[in-house]
Amino acid sequence: MDLMKMGQKLNEFDYELSLRILDHIEVTPDGKLTVIFLAGIRGTD
Fold first, then answer.
1. Model pTM?
2. Which region, left, alpha or beta, applies to residue 17 given φ > 0 means left and ψ of -120 to 50 means alpha?
3. What does each C-alpha distance from 30 to 6, 15, 44, 45 come to in angstroms?
4. What pLDDT is attached to residue 34?
5. N or C: more exposed end of the chain, with fewer CB within 10 A?
6. pLDDT tens digits along 2-42
7. How far apart are CA 13 and CA 31, in angstroms?
8. Any bridge partners for residue 37, and if so which?
């Protein structure tokens, strides 16, 4: 299941929440973003 395709666009961003759940964000050679969560889950669109 591709969760990125099923998700909705963000209307707002909770910065405090992101500090608690995000590890880091990587930029791939083709310019796409990969979000790495503290739980080890990686999300790329």
1. 0.62
2. alpha
3. 23, 26, 12, 11
4. 92
5. N
6. 656 777 777 888 999 999 999 999 999 998 999 999 999 99
7. 22
8. 22
> What DSSP string describes 3-44?
HHHHS---SS--HHHHHHHEEEEEE-TTS-EEEEETTS-EEE
In whole angstroms, what is the distance from residue 16 CA to residue 6 CA? 24
Task: For residues 28 and 37, give the distance between their C-alpha atoms in angstroms, rounded to a whole number.
Answer: 16
pLDDT of res. 2: 62
Token digits of residue 17: 């929440």
